[in-house]
Design brief:
Strand order of the largest sheet: 2-1-4
Number of helices: 1
Strand content: 35-45%
Largest sheet: 3 strands, antiparallel
Radius of gyration: 15 Å
Number of strands: 5
Shape: elongated
């Protein structure tokens, strides 16, 4: 795999008012190897919309994003490695 860093955007502080850079932080980690039944994907496009803001404050049709966890979002990704039936590189 060409990229060897797992970049994650964490919600570190729930916003009050306008979103600001201090509400988030980017951390780099090791790329995990998929276990049985899992796939490793490379995200190509991320969806950011009004729902992201709602998730920071409370549960909606999904659970709320808690502080110091990865910011949730929809994405289009490609399978890089697979140990799950039905998902091929």
């Amino acid at each position: 795999m060409a990229d060897s860093i797992n970049r994650q955007i964490l919600l570190v502080e729930k916003p009050t008012g306008k979103l600001a850079p201090q509400n988030f932080t980017m951390v780099d980690g090791k790329i995990p190897e998929p276990k049985d039944g899992e796939v490793l994907v490379r995200v190509r496009y991320i969806s950011l919309d009004a729902a992201n803001r709602a998730w920071m404050h409370s549960a909606t049709y999904r659970s709320a994003v808690e502080t110091n966890t990865v910011m949730a979002g929809g994405a289009i990704a490609e399978v890089v490695s697979s140990k799950a039936p039905g998902f091929a590189k």
